[in-house]
Amino acid sequence: MASIFSKIIDGEIPCYKVAEDQNHIAFLDINPNAKGHTLCVPKKEVNKLFDLGPQAYSELMEFSRTVALGLRKAVPCQRIGMMVIGLEVPHVHVHLIPLNTISDATFTKKEQVDKSQIFELAKHIATKIG
Ligand code: 5GP
Question: How far is Cα 32 from Cα 68, in angstroms, rounded to an integer?
């Protein structure tokens, strides 16, 4: 069965997209640790990060770096944290999280999402990604 992220990539489920290239997409996490929490996802569905081949792995890291550089321009924070977990969605994804405190990295503290502003936030981040 297709992962929820494959359904997003195929346009069956909506997302707040911030960047896309031929092989990757980046969109806002639906249940963010912090404002601007973004997921970078390869379009080809592979379960585990270290099962990616060397080229796909490097390209995902380079795509994530490009998104992170834009994210830190768009969302004031001390730094962008990068994590790979995958316990909930078995489709490789890199979490990029604007960090101000260690609790932003814990996946226990969650940000209240203001639904009226999330589209504007995604558009703002998208404009900063080069
Ligand atoms: P992980 O698999 O790395 O443990 O966590 C999966 C992440 O994907 C979680 O942070 C969760 O909030 C996010 N997520 C799960 N389903 C959706 C979805 O349908 N849309 C979006 N944008 N994010 C999702």
Answer: 15
